[in-house]
């Protein structure tokens, strides 16, 4: 029986990780399993911190001790027994923290296959004249070299090592055996007969110097012999170095690829040639970033209403008095030379003179010509050695498209390799959907057909998966750090499906986040495909369609934090629905519904913000009117332009107008009605802190008030303790052995690092003297261990503290502890901590709140509480704008702006506007079609 269980189920006994109450459960293998429950009920503790962590720990422990020291290792979860567990793979929902070099194509490994495809089946063209490049004969090479002017010094070189690490001792031995006495190593000529020592871990280029000569009329035979020798030694490649104006310049010739007209030679095509992370493929100017840092006129002169006399040139206003006087003198000279009124607003100055002020007199090289603000700043930037000056100047710089490669990231030679007339950069600029069509249309003949066949299959399979999970609108060159958490997770899912693994256990965190209802079915289909391949798929999910599609459901609860951590119900969907003890079942069988009491507010379009000509990314120069003092939902399929409109245009424009932010708003003509808003608050899912020291109590400023309470106790006053005494971040009251962290990290080398209780304070964070001070019988350390619910009851009589704790409870965070490390708080929880922080502040009634998918991580019951809070904000005269796909949220909106009709290039238009009842009646609105069912229409 035990063997049957271990083969057919993952058996978990005594799971106590975080708030789990020693649960026992058998999870069927090779099934789609959904774990659901209210926020904080223990879903992630079971799925990620127990199942995934144990699987990962077992895998790493199977490796050698040498390999283990290089890997991040996971602590053993607090569980008695886990049996029948396959290898685990986690695909989490989190915003990407990758660098600017990572793209959709590199993350999905499509770019690796693309590089291989272009190297094996691409057709080279001359990047100078556009001629199709063919292989050259030795006679053609000789003819081209013979045309070098007489008297020039040249070297005939044979490249034998190109961009490889190592000491290469055997290469130099080979050179000596062949009778050659010189070599060029990393650009320098060396004596091949000496003991040459190269760094083992650096990349090197080694060329054999076959001949050195001066071009004359009678050297044809010598040239022929030297070129032939070089071609033999260099496997068909010869380099001719010419000395021009004191510098050596290389000409590359190849029996493989070289332009007959220009003489531009290509090495044998290789994948590294198309890598923007390699020095052999990346653009020299931007080093493969596709962008360069440039001075931005809008940052240099942020307020064009100011005159030059009033300090319009902001970049010259933050220097010492002497330097400012010098720049004031330059402005005086400029105004005097061109007759500019120093009191005239900058925007009214003639466009030609504005250009001269910024860029200088480019047509005039006289000594008295005006240098220009930007050239002056560049001169200082290039010459300074001061990090402070560099930092100050970079405030006025922004990334712009690289002029050398036009954002393509690669060198001209790489970009001149074509396939069906397209370069690799042109292919990656396509959307997933277009790229899929492009690769399916490719036809190859002969040897190329054999070489390209398997590569194309890998590419098209991955693209098909991405289309299936609603990512057809993304371009392959889209930077990973611009993707939402949901998009990044679905990309990782597509990558995993593409690997074709069998017998694994996939653990996913809310894969439906950021996905419109229209695309849910295809995503669920992908998960089922993963399951049908012989894998176990465990999903933490709240989406109703995903729950109903599960083979098995585990409902945790009944509440959050200490009130959760037990299995309320488990079984098939019908079994869950029939279980009256499950809160989830009551929403699935419609006994409970997400509803908001009260009448829908009517949008007053006269009291609104108007965005004219929004054209950033895929927006089609649309005019959007957003009513104020209502709950407004921005909807549409993934990639339709919602975040572009609200975050990149509206939010940045408001931040710039109200707070003087330097973030550049997306392209638009103008925005009117900004004066009706006095405060804008964006509440996103970024972490509330990046170190273990940050926690909800410190982020919400709650801990400052609690420290003041302890400082006002009688004993604290007698001892002279101020509020700073009770901070665990500074010396004085904290335990100095662990520096106020309560734990100590012990490096175990071949085992995971261990965190053990500090032996001095036993996890209390403070020294004994500080812990002697008590308020109502509790120490300052005890308060950090309290949940929000416990703290609310404890501090109920202190208004400032009670207000903050009440808002944390109202947003469904009653279960988190005040001292919980911010690194253990999910994106959805972080967003609600931020929301509660803003709610605890005094409302002005003219505040605009912007939230992007606030339902992330929320159960039906949590959404009900969240909606009450958001509608309460509008009752106070504020405006709430929510980007959302959840139909329960959308149906309660006062006003909806639906973008689309599709994603990417086929999106960016206004499909429908108005209250939910009106949206339901508009046929071309996907949102309206799905909204009908929840609105009872």
Automatic annotation (TrEMBL):
Its main location: cytoplasm. CDD domains: ABC_UvrA_II (cd03271). Pfam families: UvrA_DNA-bind, UvrA_inter. The keyword Flavoprotein does not apply. InterPro entries: AAA+_ATPase, ABC_transporter-like_ATP-bd, ABC_transporter-like_CS, P-loop_NTPase, UvrA, UvrA_DNA-bd, UvrA_inter. One of its GO terms (biological process) is nucleotide-excision repair. It is found in: Cytoplasm. One of its GO terms (cellular component) is cytoplasm. Residues 594-926 form the ABC transporter domain. GO terms for molecular function: ATP binding; ATP hydrolysis activity; DNA binding; nuclease activity; zinc ion binding. It comes from the Bacteria. Keywords: ATP-binding, Cytoplasm, DNA damage, DNA excision, DNA repair, DNA-binding, Excision nuclease, Metal-binding, Nucleotide-binding, Repeat, Zinc, Zinc-finger. The keyword Oxidoreductase does not apply. Belongs to the ABC transporter superfamily. UvrA family. NCBIfam families: PRK00349.1, uvra. This is UvrABC system protein A. The lineage of its organism: Bacteria, Pseudomonadati, Planctomycetota, Candidatus Brocadiia, Candidatus Brocadiales.
């Amino acid at each position: 029986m035990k063997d049957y269980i271990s083969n057919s189920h993952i058996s978990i006994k005594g799971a106590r990780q975080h708030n789990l109450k020693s649960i026992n459960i058998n999870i069927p293998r090779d099934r789609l399993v959904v774990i659901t429950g209210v926020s904080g009920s223990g879903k992630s503790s079971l799925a990620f911190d127990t199942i995934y962590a144990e699987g990962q720990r077992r895998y790493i422990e199977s490796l050698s001790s040498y390999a283990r020291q290089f890997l991040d290792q996971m602590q053993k979860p607090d569980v008695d027994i886990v049996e029948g567990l396959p290898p685990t793979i986690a695909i989490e929902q989190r915003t990407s923290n990758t660098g600017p070099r990572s793209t959709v194509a590199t993350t999905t490994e499509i770019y690796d296959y693309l590089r291989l495809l272009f190297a094996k089946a691409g057709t080279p063209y001359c990047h100078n004249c556009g001629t199709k490049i063919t292989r050259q004969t030795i006679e053609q090479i000789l003819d081209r070299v013979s045309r070098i002017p007489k008297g020039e010094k040249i070297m005939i070189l044979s490249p034998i090592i190109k961009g490889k690490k190592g000491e290469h001792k055997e290469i130099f031995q080979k050179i000596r055996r062949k009778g050659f006495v010189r070599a060029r190593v990393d650009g320098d000529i060396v004596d091949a007969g000496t003991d040459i020592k190269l760094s083992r871990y650096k990349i090197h280029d080694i060329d054999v110097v076959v001949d050195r000569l001066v071009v004359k009329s009678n050297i044809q035979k010598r040239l022929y012999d030297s070129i032939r020798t070089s071609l033999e030694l260099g496997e068909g490649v010869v380099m001719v170095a010419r000395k021009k104006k004191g510098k050596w310049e290389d000409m590359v010739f190849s029996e493989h690829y070289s332009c007959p007209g220009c003489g531009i030679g290509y090495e044998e095509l290789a994948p590294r040639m198309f890598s923007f992370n390699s020095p052999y493929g990346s653009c020299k100017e931007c080093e493969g970033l596709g962008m360069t840092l440039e001075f931005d006129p809008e940052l240099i002169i942020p307020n064009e209403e100011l005159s030059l006399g009033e300090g319009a040139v902001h970049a010259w206003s933050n220097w010492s008095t002497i330097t400012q006087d010098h720049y004031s003198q330059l402005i005086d000279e400029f105004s005097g030379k061109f007759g500019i009124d120093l009191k005239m607003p900058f925007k009214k100055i003639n466009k030609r003179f504005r250009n001269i002020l910024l860029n200088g007199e480019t047509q005039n090289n006289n000594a008295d010509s005006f240098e220009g603000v930007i050239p002056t700043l560049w001169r200082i930037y290039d010459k300074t050695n001061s990090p402070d000056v560099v930092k100050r100047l970079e405030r006025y710089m922004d990334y712009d498209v690289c002029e050398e490669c036009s954002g393509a990231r690669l060198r001209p030679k790489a970009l001149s390799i074509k396939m069906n007339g397209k370069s690799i950069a042109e292919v990656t600029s396509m959307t997933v959907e277009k790229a899929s069509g492009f690769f399916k249309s490719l036809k190859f003949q002969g040897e190329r057909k054999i070489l390209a066949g398997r590569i194309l299959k890998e590419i098209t399979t991955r693209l098909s998966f991405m289309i299936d999970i609603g990512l057809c609108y993304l371009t392959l060159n889209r930077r990973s750090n611009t993707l939402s958490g949901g998009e990044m997770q679905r990309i990782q899912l597509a990558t995993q499906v593409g690997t074709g693994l069998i017998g694994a256990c996939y653990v996913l965190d809310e894969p439906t986040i950021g996905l419109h209802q229209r695309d849910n079915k295809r995503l669920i289909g992908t998960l089922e495909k993963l399951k049908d391949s012989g894998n176990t798929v465990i999903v933490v999910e709240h989406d109703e369609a995903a729950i109903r599609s599960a083979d098995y459901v585990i409902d945790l609860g009944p509440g959050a934090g200490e009130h959760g951590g037990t299995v309320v119900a488990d079984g098939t969907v019908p079994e869950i629905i029939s279980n009256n003890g499950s809160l989830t079942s009551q929403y699935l069988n419609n006994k409970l519904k997400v509803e908001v009491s009260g009448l829908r507010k009517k949008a007053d379009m006269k009291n609104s913000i108007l965005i004219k000509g929004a054209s950033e990314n895929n927006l089609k120069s649309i005019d959007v009117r957003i009513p104020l003092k209502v709950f407004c939902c921005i909807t549409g399929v993934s990639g339709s332009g919602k975040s572009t409109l609200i975050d990149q245009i509206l939010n940045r424009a408001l931040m710039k107008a109200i707070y003087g932010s330097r973030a550049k708003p997306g392209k638009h003509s103008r925005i009117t009605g900004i004066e009706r808003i006095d405060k804008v608050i964006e509440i996103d899912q970024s972490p509330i802190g990046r170190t273990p020291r940050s926690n909800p109590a410190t982020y919400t400023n709650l801990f400052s008030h609690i420290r003041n309470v302890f400082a006002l106790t009688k004993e604290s006053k007698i001892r002279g303790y101020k509020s700073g005494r009770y901070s665990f971040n500074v010396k004085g009251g904290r335990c100095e052995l662990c520096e106020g962290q309560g734990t100590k990290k012990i490096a175990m080398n071949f085992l995971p690092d261990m965190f053990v209780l500090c032996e001095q304070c036993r996890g209390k964070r403070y020294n004994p003297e500080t812990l002697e001070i008590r308020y109502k019988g509790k120490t300052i350390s005890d308060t950090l261990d309290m949940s929000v619910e416990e703290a609310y009851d404890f501090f109920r009589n202190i208004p400032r503290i009670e207000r903050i704790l009440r808002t944390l409870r109202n947003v469904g965070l009653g279960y988190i502890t005040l001292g919980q490390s911010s690194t253990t708080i999910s994106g959805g929880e972080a967003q609600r901590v931020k929301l509660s922080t803003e709610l605890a502040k005094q409302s002005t009634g003219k505040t605009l709140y912007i939230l992007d998918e606030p339902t992330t991580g929320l159960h039906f019951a949590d959404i009900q509480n969240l909606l009450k809070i958001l509608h309460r904000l509008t009752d106070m005269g504020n405006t709430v704008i929510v980007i959302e796909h959840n139909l329960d949220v959308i149906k309660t909106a006062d006003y909806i702006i639906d973008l689309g009709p599709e994603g990417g290039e086929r999106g960016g238009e206004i499909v429908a506007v108005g209250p939910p009842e009106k949206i339901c009646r508009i046929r071309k609105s996907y949102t309206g079609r799905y909204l009908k069912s929840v609105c009872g229409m």
